[in-house]
Amino acid sequence: MKNLMYLLICFLMIACNNSEVSDTAHDRNEVKGTLVSYSEEGFAPIPKNIILMIGDGMGITQISAGMYMNGNKLNLERFPIIGLHKPYSSDNLITDSAAGATAFACGVKTYNGAIGVNSDTMPVQSILEIAESKKMATGLISTSTIVHATPASFIAHQKDRKMYEEIAADFMDTEIDFFVGGGKKYFDRRETDDRNLYKELEDNGYIVSDYFQNDLIKSELSHKKNFAYFTADNDPLMVSQGRDYLYAATKMGMAFLRKHSQNGFFLMIEGSQIDWGGHANDSDYIVTEMIDFDRTIGAVLDFAERDKETLVIVTADHETGGYSIISGSRMDSLATAFTTDYHTADLIPVFAYGPGARRFSGIYENTAIFRKMKQAINNHH
C-alpha cells in the first residue's frame, strides 16, 4: 500500500508540473505533445472562426444536474479537451459576471462591476474589437438583455455594469455584424438622452427587427447587411415560460457570419439564465436552462465538425448558488441544496473542440482564455 501511495504522489507531482504555469510554458508542452493525446488531424492548422459559449453561473453541479435530468447525457460529453480556470476578480475572490466576462473579453483581472475596463477604469480592447480590426465578422447572442454584463463586456467600456443606456450607446462605436438579445428599451426609449439607437442602427445599414414585429426565424437576412434582433423589451422570458430562440439564433448566426466575411468570425453565445436559476435557488430553473444551453452546444459542435476551421470553447464566468446534489437523489429525480443565493469561488470547467483546442487543457487564470483566443486570431491573420 505504501508503494502504491508513493506512485500516486509521484504521478500527481508530474501532472502538476505538466499543467500550465504560463501560457508560454503550456504552448511548449503542447508542441511536444506531452499534455494530451487528442489529435487535431483533419482540422485546419489554425482556427479561422472562434465560438465562445458562456453558461453564466454554470459550475460542475449545474452540468451534472442537467445531465442526470436529461437521460444521463449532454452534448458537453462530445468535447475531447477539458480544463479549469480560476475565476476570481481583482478585488474579490468571488467574481461577478462583469469582471468574469471582462477577463474573457479583454484579458485583464478587474473589479466586480467593471465592463471592458481595467482596475483603473481605463478601456481595454476586447477580443471582439480585435476581431473587427482583422476584418472578421462578429456576433453576440444572449438570453438576457444584450446590454447585460456578459455580452456588454465584449463590446462596451463602462465603469459600472448598471449603466445600461451607456452600454447600448457603445454598440454604435463598433461594426458588430450580428446580435440577438433582450433590452430593446435601452435602445429606443432612453431616459438619459433623446437618441433612438434602434433608428441609428437602421441608418447605419443594419436590418433591425424585434419580438413585437415578427418571429426571429421569419426575419429576412441579407449577408451584405448587419443584423440586430431584440427578443424582449427588457429581460427575456425563462425557457420554461416559452423562450425558445437560443438554438435558432445560434444556427442563424453561424450561417450568417460565415458568409458575411471571408476572414472568419468571432461569436459569443451566452446561456444567461442558468445563473438566474442559481440566484433564485431554483433547481428546476437551472436544469431547464442548462438543457437549453446544451442543446445549443450540440448545434455549434455539429457546425464545427463539418467546418473543420472552427474552435469552440464552452465555459462559465462563475458558479452560482453553491448548488449541490444530495442524498435522496435518483437519476431523473434530484434532491438538491444551495449554500448561497450569490456566486461562489469554485474553479470553472473549460471545454474545447477544434483547431487549437489543446491549448485549453490544464488549470489557468480566466484571463488566459482571452490570450489563447487572441493568439489564434493573430496566427490566422
Task: Assign an overall shape.
Answer: globular
Give the helix level as a range of percent.
Answer: 25-40%
- Structure summary, number of beta strands: 14
What do we call the CATH homologous superfamily of one domain? Answer: Alkaline Phosphatase, subunit A
What is the strand arrangement across the widest sheet?
A: 5-6-4-3-7-1-8-13-2-14
Largest sheet: 10 strands, mixed
The SS-based structural class is: alpha/beta
Rg from C-alpha positions? 20 Å
Mean pLDDT: 91
Q: Write down the CATH class of one domain.
A: Alpha Beta
Which helices and strands appear, and what pairs or packs with what?
Layout: H1 2-18, H2 23-32, E1 49-55, H3 60-68, E2 81-86, H4 97-106, H5 127-133, E3 137-145, H6 149-155, H7 164-170, E4 178-182, H8 185-188, H9 197-203, E5 207-210, E6 227-230, H10 245-260, E7 265-271, H11 273-279, H12 283-307, E8 310-315, E9 319-320, E10 324-325, E11 336-337, E12 343-344, E13 348-353, E14 362-365, H13 367-380
Parallel strand pairs: 1-7, 1-8, 2-14, 3-4, 3-7, 4-6, 5-6
Antiparallel strand pairs: 2-13, 8-13, 9-12, 10-11
Helix pairs in contact: 3-12, 4-6, 4-13, 10-12, 11-12
